[in-house]
# Entry
Amino acid sequence: MLNDPLVQELLNNVVKDEENLKIVECLLNGTDKDEEIAEKTGIKLNIVRKVLYKLYDAGLASYKRSKDPETQWFTYSWEFDSDEVSSQIESNSKNMIKSLEKLLEYEKNNMFFVCPENHSRFDFDEAAEKGFLCPECGDEVKFEDNHKLIEKIKEEIESCKETYDLVKSNNAK
Ligand SMILES: [Zn+2]
# Structure
């Protein structure tokens, strides 16, 4: 599961440091106590705990609390939610397609003006508001042919759709 680049991308956003994926690996292999995870991975206990709560916060892990009858201390057993990973990837990729489609419409339906030094890029209304001048350097902004960008967005949408279809059919299994 952790070899899947989409899974890695999602988890890296949560755990921040790639090193911390070892913690997820431990959970997947059935190690469920923070101290044992710290021992196995060599990652400091406070970082293990922080990462576990980040996973919890992202809806990707849950815990059960139980009291040790002898010491009266609480212990936490953690569990990783693989199904939630899959469904988050599916909905993220759906949202990505939606926002790219919105962007595509915006690019298709507008004219754009850019600063020759690339400080700024405006649609017609914004450019008119600024008097067709770059607010940063004062140069005149020039009409930009955005056909290439439009083609690039279309390609991006196609590739996202392929990913989405793949993820969706895997999740349905
Ligand atoms: Zn400029």
Notes: The chain has a mean pLDDT of 95. The beta strands are 61-67, 74-80, 112-114, 121-123, 142-144.
